[in-house]
Write a structure and sequence with these properties.
Elements lengths: L5 H17 L7 H25 L3 H30 L3 H6 L1 H31 L3 H24 L4 H26 L1
Length: about 190
């Protein structure tokens, strides 16, 4: 894997800025934006439900599953916003971008590790008789730790310029569309 340096980041931001002068922002569909969060929400609710059923643990069935569902609704909202920014970039750029390749690999790794540890913790709590409350406590505390670690890991790349560029390009496109609509109505 190639190293992601600040020079590479700056070059890709310049390339993206140039691309936005020639191409418009892609407006992704709602389902495309919420799908990863929705699937995670189902996973976070299904694992305790299946475990609770397998170990005949009613607290897991009726406490942990619904609470996991509620908590992951917030996760879904956050991921939908991030995914909308990502999907607004033309696909040709995303496929060839080192930034998005590295970020995608990191996000997948964090997600796989967290999901694996989540299922192990829920099963361990169910099998040991600790019940759903402890698996929920573990899930929430480990989620905060994973988010903190991911934030710390990604902050090293100082990618705020990238998100600022995407947001500015979206706003510019909206302003241009509004101006053309107002000229047409006059």
């Amino acid at each position: 894997m190639t190293n992601l340096t600040h020079q590479v980041i700056q070059k890709e931001i310049r390339d993206l800025r140039e691309l936005f002068t020639h191409k418009s922002i892609v407006v992704p569909g709602v389902w495309e934006c919420v799908r990863p969060g929705f699937l995670t929400m189902l996973w976070m609710a299904a694992v305790p439900a299946i475990t609770g059923y397998a170990f005949s643990d009613r607290s897991t069935l009726w406490f942990t599953s619904p609470l996991s569902l509620v908590i992951t609704v917030f996760f879904m909202a956050c991921t939908a916003n991030s995914r909308a920014l990502y999907l607004s970039i033309p696909e040709s750029f995303r496929k060839n971008s080192l930034i998005f390749s590295v970020l995608g690999d990191k996000l997948r790794a964090y997600y796989v590790v967290y999901s694996t540890l989540y299922i192990i913790a829920v099963i361990a709590c169910g099998a040991s008789g600790l019940g759903g409350v402890w698996s929920f406590v573990w899930a929430i505390s480990s989620a905060f730790l994973f988010v903190f670690a991911l934030n710390f890991d990604l902050s090293r790349y100082q990618l705020s310029a990238l998100s600022d560029l995407i947001i500015a390009a979206k706003e510019s496109q909206i302003n241009t569309q509004e101006q053309s609509v107002s000229k047409e109505t006059q």
